[in-house]
């Protein structure tokens, strides 16, 4: 079967679905198939309409699109993603690193001063993406990533070994029971922050992800509140606590202020002009 035939066949077979979703055939051709080609068809970036599909190709295309129709994240299908230029393996038991989080890395890289040693703690390290990028790019650093999810820790260790980074460690740990003999220069976290009541409004991709990675009680603030109130004691004086969040930066700044443990408290925007990060510097 030629690619052209397959595309029409697939599109019209699922026409009702595509109508509801306002997806046209060019969208499928350009976006979905390109993704598939990039990852599975030996890095070709264009498939021509007269491309002849083998049975194996057909099987691959059908499976891929059925998964897409079910909204499974493309990263879970491919089993890897890129975060700040590093190839990070993922699986469907861990959170898929998001591009917004790269702004957090930009901020840290601007914040640090050359030739100083940094001890960094990453709370809720997921696939290890933040910890791995920071430990790779900040040579004079020692990074610890903790996560409550064993699958995250196992995967982070695989990523660490694959990338051959030595100044990072990952530990299974729950931030509600965290203790440490050390003080840190930087504590960073992209905690769960979606309000459980927003469940019906959010992107369907999220439904495929680990629930504990995404949702937090108290309008999405439960974990953020705990971290701000309990982690200043693990920071050195002038240490930085920075958190990713969603659309409630004023409340989060207020939580920082109320602790009376932080001097400079600011929120930062991501590249979509949304206040997405808030930080405080410990007195
Ligand atoms: C939004 S994901 C962030 C993952 C990764 N840091 C990133 O930015 O892509 C939140 C992570 O926090 C972890 N987590 C949730 N509650 C936790 C807790 N109480 N203690 C430690 N980790 C927790 C989840 O397992 C998940 O990996």
From TrEMBL:
The keyword S-adenosyl-L-methionine applies. GO terms for molecular function: nucleic acid binding; protein methyltransferase activity. Gene3D superfamilies: Vaccinia Virus protein VP39. Pfam families: Methyltransf_31 (PF13847). GO terms for biological process: methylation. Keywords: Methyltransferase, S-adenosyl-L-methionine, Transferase. PROSITE patterns: N6_MTASE (PS00092). It comes from endosymbiont of Rhynchophorus ferrugineus. This is Release factor glutamine methyltransferase.
